[in-house]
Amino acid sequence: MAVSSAAPVPVSAITSGCELDGGVTRQTGAGGNTEPVSGSLDFPGPLINTFSRHYRYRYGQPVGKIPLHTGHPCPNRARGGCIFCLADSFTPNYLHAVDPIEIQIARGSRYLLRDRFRLYFGYFQQETCTALPLDRLLPMLEQVLGVEDCVGLILSTRPDAVADGLVRALADLARQSGREILVELGLQSVHERSLQLLNRNHGVECYFEAAHRIRSVGLGLGVHLIMGIPGESRADMMATVDTVCAHGLDAIKLHHLQVIRHTPLHAMHRAAPIPLFDAPAYIELLTEILPRIPPGVVIHRLWSRSHLHLLIGPRWDVPPPRLTRMLHRALAEKGVYQGSRISS
Ligand code: SF4
C-alpha cells in the first residue's frame, strides 16, 4: 500500500461514520465515529447507495445525523482500549458528555443541521453507548425519539455489549415509536490476529452472535471496519468485507487506518513506521471493495478524517468533495459500482 502523503478520495451517494454520511457528518475519529460536516459523499450518479441518497429517497428530503453522548465510558478502556482509539479525535467540538440530551440535540441542530436538514437520526457514536445500564439508557433513547424531527437512532457499540435483554428492549422501542433503530457494531476485521493486535478484547464469533441477535428481532445491523490494519494484506481486507456481507447486514461504515496522537498505535508507528494509505491508493482499494457490497446495503462512510491537531497520518489534505469526485471517476473508469461484482 502506498505510504501517506497528500491526496484523498471520493465516491458518491451516501454517509458513515464519517463520510459518506447522511450528508451531515464527516468522519473524524478512529473509533468509527464522525464529526459533523456536510454532505461529503453525495454523488451525482447511482454508483453508491450512500446514507444521503438512501434516506433522502425514503423521507423525500435530506436527513442528517446528530452525534449524542450518554456520558458513559467504553468498558474496553479499562482493558487498555483499542490501540487506534482516542475519544477526542472523533468528538465534535460542540458535544459535551455532561450536557443533558436536550442540550446536545439543540447544539447538534444548530451546528450540524443548520438550515440544511430538518429530519435527523440521533447518533450515539461516542464510546460504547449500550454499556450504559438499560434502566438509564432506555429513558434517554425514548427522550430522543420523542422529538418529532428525529426519524430514528443509530447506536454505535461493541459486539460484546448487546445482550438479549437489550436487543429485545430496543426492538420494543422501535415498534412503539414507529422509528428505525440501527445498531452499529465495531468489528474492524474478521481476522482474530488483527482483533488481538487492536486490543479489541472480543473475537469474531462474538460479532456473529451479536449480529444474529440484532437481526433476529428486526433491528437494523451496521458494521464498522478499518482498512489497512498492520499485517493485513489486500486479500485479508477483501475477506473481511466478503465475510460480513455474506453474513448479512444493512449498513456499513469503513475507513482507512489513521494514526492518532497519544495512542498505542502512535507509539508503534514511532518505533517502526506503519504503512498508511495515501488517497489515490485508498480510492483504488475502494473500487475493489464497493463492487463486493450488496447494492441494498447503506454506506455510511468510506473514509475518515480526524481532528488535524491529533492526526499523525495519513494527512491527505484533500477536501471531501474532491475525494468524492476522485472515487466517482475511478469507479466510472473501471466500469464498476456498489454490488456490481455480485450481480454480474
Ligand atoms: S470499543 Fe470503540 S470506543 Fe471503545 S476503545 Fe475501542 S474503538 Fe474506542
TrEMBL record:
Task: Say yes or no: keyword DNA damage present.
Answer: no
Record-annotated Radical SAM core domain positions: 58-296
Cofactor(s) needed: [4Fe-4S] cluster
A Pfam family of this chain: Radical_SAM_C
Which SUPFAM superfamilies does the UniProt record give? Radical SAM enzymes
Q: Name one GO molecular function term.
A: metal ion binding
Q: Which Gene3D superfamilies match?
A: tm_1862 like domain
Query: Protease: present as a keyword of the record?
Result: no
**UniProt keywords, alphabetically:** 4Fe-4S, Iron, Iron-sulfur, Metal-binding, S-adenosyl-L-methionine
Q: Which NCBIfam families match?
A: TIGR01212 family radical SAM protein (TIGR01212)
Q: Known PANTHER family for this protein?
A: HISTONE ACETYLTRANSFERASE-RELATED (PTHR11135), PROTEIN YHCC (PTHR11135:SF1)
Protein name as annotated: TIGR01212 family radical SAM protein
Which organism is the protein's source?
A: Desulfolithobacter dissulfuricans
